[in-house]
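## tool: complex_structure
## caller: assistant
## args:
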Amino acid sequence: MKYWLFKSEPETFGIDHLIKRPKQTEQWDGVRNYQARNMLRDDIKIGDKAFFYHSNCTPPGIVGMIDIVKASYPDTTAFNPESKYYDPKSTPDNPRWFMVDVHFIKKFDRIISLEELKQHPLLENMVVARRGSRLSITPVTAEEWKTIIAMRK
DNA sequence: GCCAACGTTGGC
DNA sequence: GCCAACGTTGGC
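## result:
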């Protein structure tokens, strides 16, 4: 099993939105970056766990935990001209973008802020904490996962 | 709202 | 295939 970090803007789709979804499950759609796409398509499997990270807010940070309940399948928002994620170059026969289904596990009692992540000696190489890190999906090592779990109270 | 960092596009 | 111009992300 692998660990990940999924970024989302709380105004658009935050952890509270996920909690209210049927079965507390939602498609993680709209990823339009090739590096993130490759991870979604090739590496992220059922049973993997991820931190839910709120970006573009004050403060940015980790707010909870999710797991993957359905592995890679074509992102159907790319086929829909009405969608803001529409991409005419992605077709059902030759899909360019992929998504997974994520399921709520828990919301932490507090936000573990980006600043805190950056300050922790065991997390200094964590991808999301690196300068200029813009990837919406990043890998998390088992050690980083354990460290962050221990910080949450 | 600014802007650094980074990804993508397209002319050549 | 290079790289300048442009667009986006997201912390601050």
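## assistant note: Chain A is about 25% helix and 35% strand. Residues 7, 9, 55-60, 114, 132-134, 136 of chain A lie near DNA strand C (CB under 10 Å from a C1'). Handing back to user.
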